[in-house]
């Protein structure tokens, strides 16, 4: 796993967007040749989406032959609810780009049969990316932890009873099947998570740590998020920054595999 | 998935939605405004046509509830070719962003009503002209003392309420607004009956006190015709009809106001919009001379002389109709009151729609609303194109 430490959240957004731009450009998607990617929601990736929209407006990137899969959706929240991830994806990304609506997949948290919906999603992913070796968890219904409900209630009029208690979410095993994984971590409040992800062993309490075993995972963070890391760890990865820069330049992915 | 025709996206524009001008695309299909998110996720299709709209503001189409004519046509007088005249004005209005209007007849004799009124039929707009919402009948049930440009000999009292009114006008099927003076004998009963029939009653050309005006509102009136004009001036012991703007009536009162730069002083416009913000409706009160040169015209039986765009009853100093269309009124109003552009545009669209009770389908760019709108140049506010029910009905050259 590579760790890329940048100055601030803006730099992380810029780097992540350029990484996506580089990957899609090199892949050169077209009819019968689709680039497939998973998409996150929430505050952290917002900046990346905005930069990608800029690139699209500048004519540097097209999503016409890109297939996307979103990572999660609340159960039982109306699609048009401003906290739903359908709403988020439409307003923050999809409506600004040229993606084919039939190729932008978001889990349906209002499906009559949620188990079948998860399976449908898994099948779609498999179909888009070929069969993968199954690791642990797959797309499933997840009951949200109490502290998650607490944290989310500010988006629901501070009424915890209004926060959906369940969500559909793509499992770590599903994401592990991806050829490449990019994880964005910004802000001091994520510092502990980053330390657990990088400096300790694979641990189910800190799911991001699973990507230590992924052959092509890159973690992009800002300085604030490194507060709980050892100085040694930070210095090691910062010393590699020139190498990391090549990842978003016109260097083929094959060549990049030697970078660590 | 069932395929439907004509999914059109107006791209890269600013639109007026929820009283704010926001950067947002506007999507329409089958004559109505639609929710693109629903189309994206459920139908999973893209737009059939994308219209690029750089530097454009899209506003709901203008609704003019008081217009006596234009381009040489006088709705109250020309009885030979009523339909031709209406059509001429309806078409010409498209260039001014007007998508719906209420042809207005001033005080006329019974014969005129009989000949003209049945021929002005409520009509859905299209390329041939703006939607006709219904006729606005202004007079003859008005106050002699506040006749303005109306003919004195033709003014009547609605003594027997609705009976007198129907006796004068004939069928009211084509009528949407009646302007009358509430202090006249029989007026309150008439207001009640008309309101019950679904016709909006506007108070105007009146010497009514505030108490009499409030009685009018209690009986169903919800409009004031061309505020400040043809009514008592504001008096602090009896504010008269103008006082309705701040009276504590249960429902919202709406008032038409002429902001052609001539009929109403900018300070008066500001007084109005600051005391009753939601009720302000821009009206053109335009007449035959609109769109033409200075010269001699008529409003109903009266001769009118236009000099430098100002219209007077010939040989007098009595101001009568204006020569400015609603798009011009929006610009003048914004300039005069320094209000937000959102407010100026809503005063010519949402507010009249509310006054007529049609704000569930007109006056907004919300999902499900009629696709009646106007594309304005973002800076000059000049009309670039006008659309009715999703069809482009006017395009500036």
From TrEMBL, chain A:
The keyword Hydrolase applies. Residues 7-129 form the Glucosamine/galactosamine-6-phosphate isomerase domain. The keyword Hydrolase applies. It catalyses: alpha-D-glucosamine 6-phosphate + H2O = beta-D-fructose 6-phosphate + NH4(+). GO terms for molecular function: glucosamine-6-phosphate deaminase activity; identical protein binding. It comes from the Eukaryota. GO terms for biological process: carbohydrate metabolic process; glucosamine catabolic process; N-acetylglucosamine catabolic process; N-acetylneuraminate catabolic process. Its EC number is 3.5.99.6. Pathway: Nucleotide-sugar biosynthesis; UDP-N-acetyl-alpha-D-glucosamine biosynthesis; alpha-D-glucosamine 6-phosphate from D-fructose 6-phosphate: step 1/1. Gene3D superfamilies: 3.40.50.1360. It is an enzyme of class 3 (hydrolase). Keywords: Hydrolase. Pfam families: Glucosamine_iso. GO terms for cellular component: cytoplasm. Coiled coil: none annotated. Catalyzes the reversible conversion of alpha-D-glucosamine 6-phosphate (GlcN-6P) into beta-D-fructose 6-phosphate (Fru-6P) and ammonium ion, a regulatory reaction step in de novo uridine diphosphate-N-acetyl-alpha-D-glucosamine (UDP-GlcNAc) biosynthesis via hexosamine pathway. Homohexamer. Belongs to the glucosamine/galactosamine-6-phosphate isomerase family. This is Glucosamine-6-phosphate deaminase. It comes from Leptidea sinapis. The lineage of its organism: Eukaryota, Metazoa, Ecdysozoa, Arthropoda, Hexapoda.
Automatic annotation (TrEMBL), chain B:
GO terms for biological process: N-acetylglucosamine catabolic process; N-acetylneuraminate catabolic process; negative regulation of UDP-N-acetylglucosamine biosynthetic process. Substrate binds at residues 149, 229-230, 237, 263, 319-321. The active site is at 285 (proton donor/acceptor). Keywords: Carbohydrate metabolism, Hydrolase, Metal-binding. Zn(2+) binds at residues 138, 205, 226. CDD domains: NagA (cd00854). GO terms for molecular function: metal ion binding; N-acetylglucosamine-6-phosphate deacetylase activity. This is N-acetylglucosamine-6-phosphate deacetylase. Its cofactor is a divalent metal cation. It catalyses: N-acetyl-D-glucosamine 6-phosphate + H2O = D-glucosamine 6-phosphate + acetate. Belongs to the metallo-dependent hydrolases superfamily. NagA family. It is an enzyme of class 3 (hydrolase). Coiled coil: none annotated. Residues 57-392 form the Amidohydrolase-related domain. Binds 1 divalent metal cation per subunit. Its EC number is 3.5.1.25.
